[in-house]
Amino acid sequence: MSGDVLLKILADHGPWVILVFFLLWRDAEKDRATRGVLDKNAAVLTEIATVIRERMPRT
Length: 59
Known about the structure:
mainly alpha
């Protein structure tokens, strides 16, 4: 986005536009961090399940 377009949007709609974009960006960052933690937890749970399955006696 060019600087002229950003200045025009800011002039037309006021500073709340920046606040909206900031809140959307912050929400996206939180989602990205949450997804990273969930992926890590899924990997740990998969590893635990594999270890348990390997140690169970075969019938």
